[in-house]
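[job 4471] stage=fold_predict status=RUNNING
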Amino acid sequence: MRPESTPELGVRYWVALCAASVAGCNLGDFVSLYLQVGHWRGLLPLALVLAAILLAERRARASAGWYWAAILVVRTAATNAADLATHTFNLDYSWVIAALEALQVVVVLGASMRTTDTKRGRYPKPAADGWYWASMMTAGTLGTAIGDCTADAFTLGTGWGTVALSAPLAATLAVGFATRWRTKPSYWFAVIAVRAAGTTAGDWLAFAESGGLGLLVSTCLSCAIFIAILLLWKPSAVEAPPITHSV
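[job 4471] inference complete, writing structure tokens
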């Protein structure tokens, strides 16, 4: 994905990513449960949609909308991938989380992820290449498993689970902003934390057990909030040509 289509890692980015995490959680459950395609049959169509978005971005006018569309699709697929392991195959949360953590380390270390500074003093942008999207999928699946484990295995429920996961989320964001997102660990720990809290928040919003709105209403609402954030909260103006930094 071209640098012109990726957003800066500022406050707007993380608010939008949190909203995308909740919306993707609801959308993943909507695809698997409401459309009754199960946890695995929707993965191939979602992979094809992601591929179409990435190919279209190369040929169309550069826009952060392509990035956010890809993020939502990846978050939706990650919900189904995690639920496939823990709900369909009934694998223990500890084993799933441990395996995904190991895979996340391999993917992140294998990626030569770089960010671009758009202007001195501003936040960098992620370099959204193939490794980046593979890592985003792994992080999303890991975050989903952590969120479900917190709510189910730790018996906190989705409401208190969201409260509990908000503390590590706030901590990772604080560290990331303090270092201005110039290291791999600060960025990916924050992404995983966003996914974990977004999972419990999405389930709390959706399901009747927590007094939720129902899957259809919550999916429409969370997706609408995500889109509204992107449309109403305007990004900063286009800056000078980027300077690349390793992370």
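[job 4471] summary: The two ends are 17 Å apart (CA to CA).
[job 4471] exit 0
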